[in-house]
Amino acid sequence: MRLEISSFEYTDLMREHFRRPRNVVYSDVEEWNRRASGRGSIGSMLMGDSLRIWIVVEKDAAGEERITKLVWKSYGNPTVVAATSLMSELVTRGGGMTLEEALALTAEDLCDQLGINRSAAGAIVSHLALRDAIHDYFRRTGQNHRIRERLPQIVCDCLGVTDEEIEEEVKNGAMDFDLLQQATGVGTGCGACHELVCQLIEEYLEKYFY
Ligand code: FES
After folding, report:
1. pTM of the model
2. pLDDT at 174 over 80
3. How many Å lie between the centroid of ligand 1 and the Cα of residue 161?
4. What separation in Å is there between the alpha carbon of 191 and the centre of ligand 1?
């Protein structure tokens, strides 16, 4: 929570979650490492968007696995903080989402609820960390058939654009960097991802069109 939030850039709900984040872990990380059913993490402290989350999964009376608790710790920017705080409430509300419901939650859902731009990188970080925690739960409980072989990776840290989104946009006709940038905003921050993005465009063009 080291960044200041300005008074005019964000919605009231986003400011509320940034100023009073819900379900944050402060010092009891070791306890949550022991207690959690699944752990997820994403990002790097160097890039300023590190997020770790812990989930507790319990079976309801019908034997359905539900997320009854989600706690988190972040060194991220205001969007990561607000999106993860909101997500921690959404996922555990009313007895908790089933794992399928939680996996179906998207970064766009979080942005819509916060009333912010749908491409906000922080919401993508929150959403990927949740998926990582659920897959960790699958691994710990031997449910390997439910594990997706590979989770999306963030390629552009500034905009939170993943390789999965780039692949989808290239498939839909974003066949060069400029078109992809118009579609996703990729590369409009520090520019460090430019070379990797171009490599991926080539790879997906090769895969789908040549
Ligand atoms: S990593 Fe900074 S613009 Fe992509």
Report:
1. 0.75
2. yes
3. 9
4. 5
